[in-house]
Amino acid sequence: VPAGWSYEHDMELGRFLYDHNKKELQCGDCMTEHVSNVEVSSQVGDCGAASLTDNQTYSFWESNGPPGQHWVRLSMKKGSIVKKLWLVLDGDCNSYVPRRVAVYGGPPNRLQHIRTVLINENSFQNVCILRNMKFHLPVLEIRFLECRDQGYNVRLQGIKIKSFWEWDLILNSDMFQPARLVRYPLLEAVDTSVLYRRAVLIQRFVQVLDSVLCYLIPLSEDSIGTFNALR
């Protein structure tokens, strides 16, 4: 811990990092900016890949074929890093809603399994199936393994993505310029190299916490004392 550093300094540095990333999150349509192409395994009539990115609630993509053979493939622009990837479900017909999906990523000829997601039966709209990737993946492929009610085909209203350019995520001492620290008085008098090293530590902690947070399942019988211990 740096000399003279306090919990309040960490809180203020955390706010600075959050505000810095928040500006990146305010970019426009990440699908348009970071995705170069969208392909689908099959389609019914005019219900094709274009319906996944038109932001229209009345249009949808619908697959056409045997179960377990449906996929959507996103070709990502070089340098893009996915922070969140959502499926926009069409809940009007339950048997067309995906129940279990697998996400693969990597070079086109060497896709590797990233994660498999079991979609909650109570989910009727946006479902996040991928988050917080740390590096660029040229291709992301969503494979639909199973639908609800033993359905054969998949129907999606859309796909949403939130992403960054990899060069925007690199922490360096230059980001702690005096002009940026005006709103953070506790940080103004601290050497930029100290702020940088502490920011790296916070970023590493956040990554570790994110990786295990999904396993911390709250139980209804937990007391407030248990929650305070966890916090």
Automatic annotation (TrEMBL):
Keyword Ligase among record annotations: yes
Keywords, sorted A to Z: Ligase
Annotated InterPro entries: APC_su10/DOC_dom, Galactose-bd-like_sf, HECTD3
Keyword Ligase: yes
Tree of life domain: Eukaryota
Single GO MF annotation: ubiquitin-protein transferase activity
SMART domains (UniProt xref): APC10
DOC domain boundaries: 1-188
Pfam families associated with the record: ANAPC10 (PF03256)
Name of the featured protein: HECD3 ligase
Organismal lineage: Eukaryota, Metazoa, Chordata, Craniata, Vertebrata
Gene responsible for this protein: Hectd3_3
